[in-house]
Write a structure and sequence with these properties.
Elements lengths: L1 E3 L4 E3 L22 H14 L7 E7 L15 H15 L3 E7 L5 E6 L4 E6 L3 E4 L1
Parallel strand pairs: 3-4
Antiparallel strand pairs: 1-2, 1-3, 5-6, 6-7
Helix pairs in contact: 1-2
């Protein structure tokens, strides 16, 4: 979630993979990858009136939903997504103000633009706001 409080604008990127180099050949869906989705989201927010110095981010997700006997780092999609998102936000100088990442449970999120709280629901942890 990237938002600008002053302009009351926000957007969410649901990252599926850390890097667009993992895409099959041909046209890629920029919304799927951390390295492309974050940049695209920021461009849209700025186009709609957000100002870069005032953008903030909240992260939720990055769970390791499945355990694999082999595969090494390649199969750590959730943690790698979190690392890639942090890198993109750092490169764009967007501050992460709160996060709920990792673990092995999926999350459902809702962002309230009025109070800038990200509501996170998980099966194992219940509901919380960050």
């Amino acid at each position: 979630m990237i938002y600008g409080e002053k302009k009351e604008i926000a957007g969410l990127a649901h990252i599926m993979l850390p890097d667009s180099s993992l895409a099959k050949s041909g046209q890629i869906n920029v919304a799927k990858f951390a390295d492309t989705a974050i940049k695209e989201l920021v461009q849209v927010l700025v186009k709609e009136g957000a100002r870069m110095p005032f953008l903030k981010a909240k992260l939720a997700g990055g769970a390791q939903m499945f355990q694999f006997a082999s595969g090494g780092d390649l199969m750590r999609i959730g943690p790698r997504n979190v690392e890639a998102v942090r890198k993109e936000l750092s490169d764009l100088r967007i501050r992460i103000v709160a996060e709920d990442v990792g673990g092995n449970s999926g999350r459902t999120v809702e962002f309230n633009l009025n109070d800038c709280l990200l509501n996170i629901r998980t099966v194992t942890k219940g509901t919380k706001n960050i």
